[in-house]
Amino acid sequence: MVDRLANSEANSKRIGLVESCFGAAGQPLAIPGRVLIGEGVLTKLCRKKPKARQFFLFNDILVYGNIVIQKKKYNKQHIIPLEGVTIDTVPDDGELRNGWLIKTPTKSFAVYAATATEKSEWMNHIGKCVRELLQKSGKSPTGEHAAVWVPDSEATVCMRCKKVKFTPVSRRHHCRKCGYVVCGPCSEKKFLLPSQSSKPVRVCEHCYGMLSGSLGRQSESMSRSGANFNNTLSDDDDDDDSSD
């Protein structure tokens, strides 16, 4: 069915409408073989609070953005290649129901549908698209994913030292490796996580210790084999704790 729709006029028009809703700031989405499978509003669990986002599922990518005017205008377009996606169901928790995790090497987050049926349909369609892409490419499923950030509201004190209480002065930070909400003193270190950034990013003391130990063992092993290994930590501040 997807192959039949790929070159259809109806599919081209649908993709064209999505592009027009994102305007000039959005990336072009129409390429040969791409099919728009479905779309809808999902609640994305962001750092500050859950927020409504418009999602579009294509046969090879997942696109989402902020809703400016429903069905007319969206901004802050995000494009996620489906080959690197893994999905896992999330248990219902109070008002947060019908959720699942979208995990990728660069970013992972939870989304929630309005009904259990909608959740099932989204997960089934995403899973099918991922399986078909991997089958065509012959690649294996991605084994490593970025951590899902713990929402700010779930941590009143540092999740590592358990001592520092968060205030307007004592800010919350997120470890890019484990996703924990941590205080400044517990997250002074940075480490290069190539799948997430081209420069070192903030990590907590616990994760820095594990990463440094692993790096040291890898460096020693490569040194024995005659290979050169260089790791440079940047002094640039990468505290990009955005609300989304």
TrEMBL record:
CDD domains attached to this UniProt entry: PH_Phafin2-like (cd01218)
Chain segments carrying region Disordered: 215-244
FYVE-type domain segment(s): 152-212
UniProt-recorded Gene Ontology molecular function terms: phosphatidylinositol binding; zinc ion binding
Compositionally skewed regions (Polar residues) per UniProt: 215-233
Compartment(s): Early endosome membrane; Endoplasmic reticulum
Domain of life per record: Eukaryota
Record's protein name: Pleckstrin homology domain-containing family F member 2
Organism, as annotated: Xiphophorus maculatus (Southern platyfish)
